[in-house]
Each structure stands twice: as structure tokens, then as C-alpha cells.
């Protein structure tokens, strides 16, 4: 029997929004699959604990406190990967916020501003810094975390939906622009997932989770690891002919 190598063997992967939820799950999944992971997020205590836990298992992990809305922070995170490992092979741009669940006409401007700033400008900052490093290094792979809200409408979440549609647009634009320079750019579009955003929404909106389960063919909420597994494949060389794709990881939600 032929033993296949790990999906991300010897790759250097940057993960944003890595302190919890899908990002923290991705750190564990990618490390298990052979990657050296550089973790970026705002909450240092959680990052330090995660890096310590990964190190106890023999994985190569480091972290840098990062606010993706600040371009300099993102450049420093990419710089840590380059300083520590000499290259950046991949990135999982996962940092994002949900904002309020409020009808559009009652949504406060500051909610719109914060969601767009984090989810769109943050993605923009990440892509620019990562692509610059990958061009210098001869290529790489990027996965952007969008949402089913980047493919279909979600009621009472207009800024979030707009921001995640923008993530899909940035993914496709970057994939088209850099394909011939050896950089693949794809996106995952998670459905209901037990992450901080959705748990917060469910707690503040009783009955919402059950309602979503009713219209999701698999009838359940995903574990963060299930999203991370899809991202790992897209970052791997086994997805070498995949770029510009937006992959729903949603239990069939958008196909209902």
C-alpha cells in the first residue's frame, strides 16, 4: 500500500483570525498536515496558548499580534513568516466579523463601517502583502474565507453579506491576475459553523439555528475543523489546477 504524504508537508502557512473558531481549527489541521504555521490575530493570550499547545505536539508554530485592518500589522505578520522560514507558501485569510443582525434601514453606520473595514479592507491588506511575498518567492496559494453570505442573501445582515460578496470578488480578481505567476487564489464559503460569529448570532436570536438547520440539507451546524479541512486541500498541491473557485462548505445550503 502506497502511503501518501501529508497535504501540507513542509509548507509555511499564515493564518489570520487564528485565535479561535475556524482559524484555531485551521492551525491544528494545517500543522497536523505537515505545515509550519504562523498565526495572526488580535488576542495575544489565545494565540500564545494555541502556539504552546501545538508546540507540545511537536509542531512548528509561531504567532504575531495582528489587526488586519492595519496594513502595517499585516506586513509584519508576513515578515515574520519570511524571517522565520525564508518564504511564504500559503495563507488562509480567515479574519472577519459578523456585525449585528438588524434590518438594513435600522443598521447603524458604525456597524457597517466596522464590518466592511475588517472583512474587506482587512482582506485587501492581506492579499497585497501575501502576493508581494509570493511573487518574490516564486508562487504560492491563498484561501480567503468568505461565507454562504457571499453567494446568497442572509436576512438582517446586509453589511456582512456585502462584505462577503466583496471577498468573492477579490478572490476572483486576484486569481485571474496572478495565475500565470504561480499564485492560486480560492475561497471557501462556510455555512452554519460553530464559530464565534454564528454562536453570537444564535445566542442573540433564539430559534435562528433551528431555522437554518431546517433549510440545510444536512440539517446541522458544521464543526470548525470541517471548514479547515477544505481550506487545507485548496492550499495543497493536490489542488494545483484549482484557482478562482468559491467552494461552499455548507451542508448543501446554497444548493437547496
Automatic annotation (TrEMBL):
It comes from the Bacteria. InterPro entries: KR_dom (IPR057326), NAD(P)-bd_dom_sf (IPR036291), Sc_DH/Rdtase_CS (IPR020904), SDR_fam (IPR002347). Residues 11-204 form the Ketoreductase domain. Keywords: Oxidoreductase. SUPFAM superfamilies: NAD(P)-binding Rossmann-fold domains. The keyword Transmembrane helix does not apply. Transmembrane segments: none annotated. The keyword RNA-binding does not apply. Belongs to the short-chain dehydrogenases/reductases (SDR) family. This is SDR family oxidoreductase. It comes from Streptomyces thermolineatus. The lineage of its organism: Bacteria, Bacillati, Actinomycetota, Actinomycetes, Kitasatosporales.
Amino acid at each position: 500500500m502506497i502511503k501518501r504524504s501529508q497535504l501540507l508537508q513542509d509548507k509555511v502557512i499564515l493564518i489570520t483570525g487564528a485565535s479561535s473558531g475556524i482559524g484555531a481549527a485551521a492551525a491544528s489541521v494545517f500543522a497536523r498536515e505537515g505545515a509550519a504555521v504562523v498565526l495572526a490575530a488580535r488576542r495575544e493570550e489565545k494565540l500564545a496558548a494555541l502556539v504552546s499547545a501545538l508546540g507540545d505536539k511537536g509542531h512548528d508554530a509561531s504567532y504575531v499580534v495582528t489587526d488586519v485592518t492595519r496594513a502595517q500589522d499585516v506586513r509584519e505578520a508576513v515578515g515574520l513568516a519570511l524571517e522565520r522560514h525564508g518564504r511564504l507558501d500559503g495563507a488562509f485569510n480567515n479574519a472577519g466579523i459578523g456585525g449585528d443582525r438588524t434590518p438594513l434601514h435600522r443598521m447603524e453606520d458604525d456597524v457597517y463601517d466596522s464590518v466592511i473595514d475588517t472583512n474587506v479592507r482587512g482582506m485587501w491588506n492581506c492579499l497585497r502583502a501575501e502576493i508581494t511575498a509570493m511573487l518574490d518567492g516564486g508562487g504560492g496559494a491563498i484561501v480567503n474565507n468568505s461565507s454562504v453570505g457571499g453567494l446568497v442573501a442572509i436576512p438582517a445582515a446586509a453589511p456582512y453579506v456585502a462584505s462577503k460578496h466583496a471577498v468573492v470578488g477579490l478572490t476572483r480578481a486576484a486569481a485571474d491576475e496572478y495565475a500565470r505567476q504561480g499564485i492560486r487564489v480560492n475561497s471557501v464559503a462556510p455555512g452554519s459553523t460553530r464559530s464565534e460569529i454564528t454562536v453570537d448570532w444564535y445566542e442573540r436570536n433564539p430559534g435562528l439555528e433551528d431555522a437554518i438547520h431546517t433549510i440545510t440539507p444536512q440539517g446541522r451546524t458544521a464543526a470548525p475543523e470541517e471548514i479547515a479541512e477544505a481550506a487545507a486541500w485548496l492550499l495543497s498541491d493536490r489542488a494545483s489546477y484549482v484557482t478562482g473557485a468559491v467552494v461552499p462548505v455548507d451542508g448543501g445550503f446554497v444548493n437547496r
